[in-house]
Amino acid sequence: MRRETAYRLAGRHHDHPVAAAGLRKEREIRFAPWPPGQLERAIVSLGILRGLSVERTARLHVLCVSYSVLDYSLETLENALSDAGFHLENTLYARLMRAIVYFCEETQRHNLESPERLIKKSNEVYIQAYDHHLHGDHDDTPPEIRDYK
Predict the structure, then answer these.
(1) What pTM does this model have?
(2) Is residue 57 within 8 Å of 74, Cβ to Cβ?
């Protein structure tokens, strides 16, 4: 059975807009303490990006960025900063947190961009398809023989 047929039988439609188009993330970008002055340059560099807001935090060497997960990801922002010559914090904790956030955002972007899936109604597709076929679902065996134990 083709996917389109299965979706049609289950009553699913794919003309919906993206469900989380306004989904915004607030993340911290941690910079290394050396070289000095890179935090101010990073605020200027990130400030020119449309749809991205940058704020300074109370902690040293940390910026808070807010963006839509469909427009940006923390991985692309940090890679762009690294390519521009900025030095990010490279402790074990920072690398682990980056890896987790990268994975979560990548998975979330993939799920938001993929079509709606049949998860809970998949059995209805097969029930309806079975009802549409000509078949002999009548058993001539008497009930007392069928239920004999």
Answers:
(1) 0.67
(2) no
- Reduce the DSSP state of residue 33 to 3 states and report it: coil
Question: For residue 63, what are the β-bridge partners?
Answer: 29, 56
For the chain, how long is the longest CA-to-CA vector? 89
Pair of tokens at residue 95: 């690398």
- C-alpha to C-alpha distance for 124 and 11, rounded to whole angstroms: 10
DSSP notation for 97-149: HHHHHHHHHHHHHHHHHSPPP-SSSHHHHHHHHHHHS-------S-HHHHT--
Compute the distance between CA of residue 61 and CA of residue 92 in angstroms, rounded to an integer.
17
For the stretch 20-69, pLDDT in tens is: 555 899 999 999 999 999 999 999 999 999 999 999 999 999 999 999 99
> pLDDT (tens digit, 9 = 90+) per residue, 96-145?
999 999 999 999 999 888 776 656 666 777 777 777 776 666 677 777 88
Q: Omega before 35 cis (within 30°)? A: yes
